[in-house]
């Protein structure tokens, strides 16, 4: 057997082995990072209240609403549970607002 044949045989064997591939162990995947659950917001103090009425006054810090019974309700815009349920916040418009009556101004009211 001459050298040229030997080189061809070795090259052919190397090529065949590279095509077949070797059984390898699978690459381990990193374990997924567990997601943290969102921290619940603390419940606002006081009684959660809803009022429907006409906006009679607006300032940068307060909203004044007059109900159909004539009651005047002043709501702080920084109230922890303030939420405009329906309507557009402008003087003369009818709105539905959720807000908290502070526990200090509602003695005996359950905290909800």
The 3D shape can be described as rod-shaped
Order of helices and strands: HEEEEE
**Radius of gyration (Å):** 37 Å
Q: Unreliable runs, pLDDT <50, ≥5 residues? A: 106-112
Strand residue percentage: 25-35%
Structural class: alpha+beta
Q: How helical, in percent, are the residues? A: 10-25%
Per DSSP, the total helix count is 1
The oligomeric state of the chains shown is single chain
Mean pLDDT: 76
Q: Roughly how many Å apart are the termini?
A: 96 Å
Number of strands: 5
| Major sheet characteristics | 5 strands, antiparallel
Can you give a write-up of this model?
This protein is an alpha+beta fold. About 15% of the residues lie in helices and about 30% in strands. It contains one helix and five strands, in the order H-E-E-E-E-E. The chain has one helix at about 5-20, and strands spanning about 45-60, 60-65, 70-75, 85, 95-100. It starts with a helix and ends in an 11-residue tail after the last strand. Mean pLDDT is about 75; it is low at about 105-110.
């Amino acid at each position: 057997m001459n050298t040229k044949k030997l080189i061809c045989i070795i090259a052919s064997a190397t090529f065949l082995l590279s095509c077949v591939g070797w059984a390898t162990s699978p690459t381990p995947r990193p374990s997924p990072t567990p997601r943290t659950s969102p921290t619940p917001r603390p419940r606002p103090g006081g009684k959660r209240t809803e009022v429907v009425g006409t906006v009679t006054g607006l300032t940068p810090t307060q909203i004044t609403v007059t109900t159909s019974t004539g009651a005047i309700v002043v709501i702080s815009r920084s109230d922890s549970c303030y939420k405009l349920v329906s309507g557009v916040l402008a003087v003369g418009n009818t709105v539905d607002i959720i807000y908290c009556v502070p526990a200090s101004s509602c003695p005996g009211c359950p905290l909800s």
